[in-house]
C-alpha cells in the first residue's frame, strides 16, 4: 500500500498528522510506502517520488493530498494496475473529486471516496472514534465499495 503525498504546500508543512495515517496502517499489518516528489524520507523511512518508483509496486493507495492532484494520481493507478484507492477526507475539503471517483469506477478500481482510515483502526485516538460515530450517524461513511 502506498500513501500519496503525505505533506505538501497545500497541507500542514510538518506532515505529522498525515503520517499518522501511515503509522496506524502499518500497525494494521500493511506495508506502507510513503510517496511525495518533495521528500526523500519520512520519519527515517524512504519516501518515493511517485508510485512507479515503489519497489515491487503496490496494490492499494491512500490519497492524503489536495484534490487538485486526485485525477493525476488515479491515472497513475490505472497505468500501474493498482485496484484500490482510498481518498482521505475528514472535515473540510479532503482529497477527492467527483471526476477522480468516476475515473476509478470506469476503470474497475475499488474506491472509498470519504473518511479517514484512522477511523477504522482499533487502537485509535478518541478524536477519530468520535468522527467514526459522527460520520456513521450522519451517513457520511460509505456502506459499500
Structural notes for this entry:
- With 145 residues, the protein is α/β, with parallel strands linked by helices.
- The chain has a single domain (2-137), classed as Rossmann fold (3-Layer(aba) Sandwich).
- Helix content is 30%, strand content 14%.
- The strands form two sheets. Strands 2-1-5-6-7 form a five-stranded parallel sheet, covered by helices on one side. Strands 3-4 form a two-stranded antiparallel sheet.
- It is globular and about 40 Å long.
- It starts with a strand and ends in an 8-residue tail after the last helix.
- The model is unreliable at 6-17 (pLDDT under 50).
Give the CATH H-level superfamily: NAD(P)-binding Rossmann-like Domain
Low-confidence residue ranges: 6-17
Quaternary structure state of the chains depicted: single chain
- Label the structural class: alpha/beta
Q: Secondary-structure map with pairings?
A:
Elements: E1 2-4, H1 16-27, E2 33-35, E3 41-42, E4 45-46, E5 60-63, H2 70-80, E6 84-87, H3 98-106, E7 110-112, H4 126-137
Parallel strand pairs: 1-2, 1-5, 5-6, 6-7
Antiparallel strand pairs: 3-4
Helix pairs in contact: 2-3
